[in-house]
Every structure is written in C-alpha cells, then in structure tokens.
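Narrative summary of target 7.
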Amino acid sequence: MKALVYTAPNEVVYRDEPQPSHAAGEVVIRVEAVGICGSDMHAYHGHDPRRVPPLILGHELAGIVVDGPGAGRRVTVNPLITCGTCGYCRQGRDNLCANRTMIGMTRPGAFAELVATAAASVVDLPPDMGTREAALTEPAATALHAIHLAARASMRPLAEGRALVLGGGAIGMLATLLLSHHGVRDVTVGEVNALRRRSLADATRATVYDPGTKRADDNAFDLVIDAVGAKATRHAALAAVKPGGVVMHIGLADWASEIDMRKLTLAEITLIGTYTYATADLRAAARALHDGAFGDLAWVDERPLSDGAAAFRDLHEGRSAAAKIVLRP
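Modeled conformation, tokenized:
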C-alpha cells in the first residue's frame, strides 16, 4: 500500500509500505480521508520523543472497515486504544487510561491507504455524512470536550460571557465555531499567521487580532481557551481572564513554563488542562458535524495523500491559510 512515512525531522516520504493485518479484536480500515494534526507537526519537527521514525503518523481519519468485525461500516476511530478495564475506562474517561496506546504514535497511523486498530475504538458515522466532515470528527471532539469542561466549571452559562481563543489552528477554529453555536456572541481570537486570520474572519463571527502587534485586554474574558500551549500564550491567558473566570489549556507547544500563580490564587481562576476526549465526545462530535454545528467547513483544505510532503512543508513554513489540511489516499 502507499503511505506517508515520517522518516526524520522535517521529512515525510510517500512510499510503499506493507499492508496491515488485523489481530484478534482488531479491524482494518480503508482510509477515505485523514487530517494533519498539530501533534503530527510536533512530531515532524522532531519534538515528540514518543513518535520515533520511521513511523506512519496520522490519527484523524474517516474510512470503511474492510477486514474484521463489522466489515462495510463507515467509521471514524478513537485513536487511543485503551484497556477497557481500569477505573478511568469504567468511568467513561478512557482518555485518561494509563495503559493506552495510540495509532500514529505507538503503532502505524492513518497517513496510508489502510490502517489497523482495535475494533473497540471504532465509532460509526451517520450514513450520509460527508467525508470532509467525517475526517474532522477527532479534532471537533477535542474542542467539544474542552468546551463541555469549561461550561461545567463556569459559574454562569458560557453564552452570558466573553470568550478569548488563543490560536487559530484547527482546535481554535473549531472551538470558536462551537462557542458561537452555543450562543456566545462575544468571541475574540488571537492568531499570529495573517493567512489564518483572514480565514478566521471569513469563517466565523469572531473578532480576530494579531498577538504580535496587539494584546488582549487584561481581566476582560470569562473564558480563555489556550489552543497553543506555549509560554507566551499561557501568560496571555492568565492576564486576559477575569477574576473568577476559567482558563482552558489544550495546546502543548511548550511542555513547561511558569505562570502567574498569584493571580490564579487571588482571583480564584479555574485552570483546567484537557487531553483529547472520551469516546462519547467522538459520537457527539460526529453528530454535531453532521447537523451543521460547525458550519460548512469551507475553510478546510483537501489534498491527495501523495502531496502530503508538500502539505507538511506548507504548514511548517506558514504558507497555508487553512486551519486544517485533510489528505485523501
């Protein structure tokens, strides 16, 4: 089969790879579309020691089961393969399973014509769901999970307050669209890439600004979503959130930095870290995408998998206006 293989930092190669076979309890999926995630870019840059080349990356997929239980089903997958028996799995919080593995990280991923994964990780899609929408289920679930946690932690409904999103990549874009869908009328997005700022302005009703030339107002937002997770955005998030507000930390661009613990304490800020989603969030995200909660997704860029190396270079060099590039095998 053809696959896009991460072979060294800043290098992915489109080449022939052995076809996967499924073990007991697994399925093989023919990939219809697969998105490039920020974590794939992190690996591409050589910054993720968990992803060791040569490795087929990719975990945001939609496809059809061709071998194993339920052949013929049109599906997306939870890329996390969990034990199903630990306390977190039994609580439905399988994203926290300590025994988890992951396609595109610890085993071959979906930048390929075929991918094998656990049958228990498969999530059925609405039969008439478009391929573009289906391929965005995984990142949409990340945004949905984060906003659910934020709503649970907020003292008042999110729609009553102001929201700031730092980062206009896929998660920032999807979070912005979902906040609007939930009735938040005052959303501001900070994005350094001028091409993406234009895309955000076209696709959303948010106020968009360049953090390189302007900073958000201090103590002004009830909810701040850090969809970058860098030292600078962590500082910006803590500065911008109102006393009593919520900071939702999604991104992992930098692994560690100091934050303003004095404000966090004296202003009773709720700081929440969020990792991926539960399987229930994937099902909910698929339904929300199908029902139009995230709009028409015209901002998504679709390309052949054979052009994947160029897509990675465009993202690396900031030449893509699209918050998400989806590859089609």
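Residues 2-136+300-328 form a domain with the Quinone Oxidoreductase; Chain A, domain 1 fold (CATH 3.90.180.10).
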